[in-house]
Amino acid sequence: MVRIELRDANPEDAEFVAWVLLTSHRSHLPKGLWDFSISEDEPECLRYLAQLAVTPHPHFAHYSTFRVAEVDGQRAAALCGYFDEELGIPALGKGIAEADAATGRSEAESAAGFARAGSVMKVAPDHEAGTWVVEHVATRPEYRRRGLVDRLVAEMLDRGRERGASQADIGVIIGNDAAQRAYEKAGFRVLGEKRHADYEATYGSPGIRSMGRSI
Questions:
Q1: Domain limits at 116?
Q2: Average pLDDT over residues 204-213
Q3: Average pLDDT, stretch 131-149?
Q4: What is the mean pLDDT of residues 31-37?
Q5: How far apart are CA 137 and CA 152, in angstroms?
Q6: Taking phi first (over 0 means left), then psi (-120 to 50 degrees means alpha), and beta for anything else, what does residue 176 get?
Q7: Number of domains in the chain
Q8: Which residues of 78-108 are buried (b: 16+ CB within 10 A; e: fewer)?
Q9: Burial of 213 (0-12, 13-18, 19+ CB in 10 A)
Q10: For residue 81, what is the domain's CATH number?
Q11: Cβ(99)–Cβ(55) under 8 Å?
């Protein structure tokens, strides 16, 4: 009988969290945020993201925000949940500085990476204070269509409710219809979208769609 376990991530999950970060931002596209901002060399990018996942200061790409689904003891899927005002972009900036220092990445390299990837800020969803943000959703290909994301989303919404949130947000890159359908199944509805030509020129999608639901 298949054994499924859902648990909080820990530092030993850093490499898996790195894969989740890379994969979730690629969405249905060949490349995503981290390919452009860190490196298009996948092993190099994953090494950096594994370091980013364990920085001293937490942020929304930190292992501590993640919930992991295991199938027969193997890491299969994960997602994260957080309050943007606590662990959003300013917190990520601190984490990136720490990851840069740990990996020897220079300020010039970091600035060049932001220049390549920065158009994402023109379409990034806005979150009202107190809204629980669910993000970085990814499943290993061999474990898809087993309901793992459904279970993870349900648990993460419960966590947001326990933290005092009454509203949850999730974003989907326009064109990832499968992800949007999955989130609609979980009770989310489209709230709006942001589009920008610069983002489309870099990433290959018009923009990002915001979805939300009460919890």
A1: 4-214
A2: 99
A3: 97
A4: 98
A5: 9
A6: beta
A7: 1
A8: bbbbbbbeebbeebbeebbebbbeeeebeee
A9: middle
A10: 3.40.630.30
A11: yes
CA dihedral 48, 53, 57, 60 (to 10 degrees): 110
Q: What angle do CA 114, 120, 125 make, to 5 degrees?
A: 135
Tokens of 201: 């020129």
Q: Which residues contact 96 (CB under 8 A, 6 or more apart)?
A: 52, 110
Max alpha carbon distance in the chain (Å)?
52
Q: What is the per-residue pLDDT for 19?
A: 99
Q: In this predicted model, what pLDDT tens digit does every residue of 63-79 receive, in sequence order?
A: 999 999 999 999 999 99
Q: How far apart are CA 148 and CA 110, in angstroms?
A: 35
Residue 5, SS3 per DSSP: strand
Contact 97, 37 (CB under 8 A): no
Q: Full-prediction pTM beyond 0.85?
A: yes
Q: Which two tokens stand for residue 62?
A: 């930190």
Mean pLDDT over 8-23 rounds to: 99
Strand partners, 203: none
